[in-house]
Amino acid sequence: MSHSAALAGVRVLDFTRVLAGPFCTMLLADMGAEVIKVESLQGDDTRQWGPPWFENDGERESAYYLSVNRNKRSIALNLKAPEGQKIARKLAAQSHIVVENLRPGGMGAFGLGFNDLIAIQPALVYASVTGYGQNGPYSERPGYDFVIQAQSGMMSITGPETGEPYKLGVAICDVVAGLFAATSILAALRQAEAVGQGQHLDIGLLDTSLAALVNVASGALVSNQPPARYGNAHPSIVPYQLFDAEDKAFALAAGNDRQFAALCGVIGQPELANDERFAANPARVAHREALVEILQVVFRTRKAETWVDKLLLAGVPAGSLNDVLAALNDPQVQSRGLVQTVAFLGDTLKLVGPAVQFSATPPTVRSAPPRLGQHTNEILQGIGMSDADISTLRQSGVVG
Fold first, then answer.
1. From the candidates 14, 30, 44, 174, which is the catalytic residue?
2. Taking 80 as the threshold, does the pLDDT of residue 1 lie above it?
3. Is it true that domain 240-326 has CATH number 3.30.70.3450?
């Protein structure tokens, strides 16, 4: 590991699977941490979550698994076997961070709970990612993103104004929890390095999803009213939504009165900026339907790209409505290097690379997501085991 990486020299023992935990540990790995992914002999559940698959020469791995597991090494370890637990404890003794996402008490049943491991590694940062946290009436429930989206209120504000609420098209509660976990781990790691004392981080998807509601949650607390759904419109800014052009839809976000006045000039109706119904944002919110109808009639007369170009030239935020593939191929995305490639299964695998650019210690994509147990031998050799020892463990079903 190059010492130009921000987390060079930091070892993470990763007992997580699916999305929230692996996303967290991938962020740490991108920043240079050594991440050992501890998998059951059957592997991370998401290895089987296809299609789509990345396939070559009769081997395949799911796109889902590939999305959050780069820059890691994999050991296949049977934690139900006492020998497997012993190996995990040896690895923990050489680690700075443990991340796990079993239900509360699950790691403790293997002798790998926070209290077990802090006894052998006092400076250990131990992060537990669960659906509902380590305590409370729901703590024993399984945590799935879709259910959390429903329970957290997130679905209640997503979708058309009338009809059924919608989930977001990505497992956003998992992603947000992973981000909270990674930032909290880094804070706890700084503390552990300063005073030599680790701690337990309790990250619940319901908690982090409510935190992610930010201004919407604040509005509910202040008004004591449940927020309404506005489809693609904004509850307190107008116009701020999709509009249909001659050929397709585009996004428009006039966030202040100056931008609205510029918009009025672009559409050839500058008088709208002085209309008392529309001159100030609170008035535009009150007269939302009338304004949207006026704008929609005009926008249907030209192509979306024409409107976007004209609006941007006038300083009004606007953009095309892309599908995911179009977004990944966007010139801005390409210029920022967000899509990267890595060798995998004798071919080239495309991945969405690190999202943040560091001037001195840039995160990197160094290796492809590991195959199940790809690094079992070298990881075990790293804790002093011989080839004969490893062969015996493999034959007895302790490692894979």
1. 174
2. no
3. no
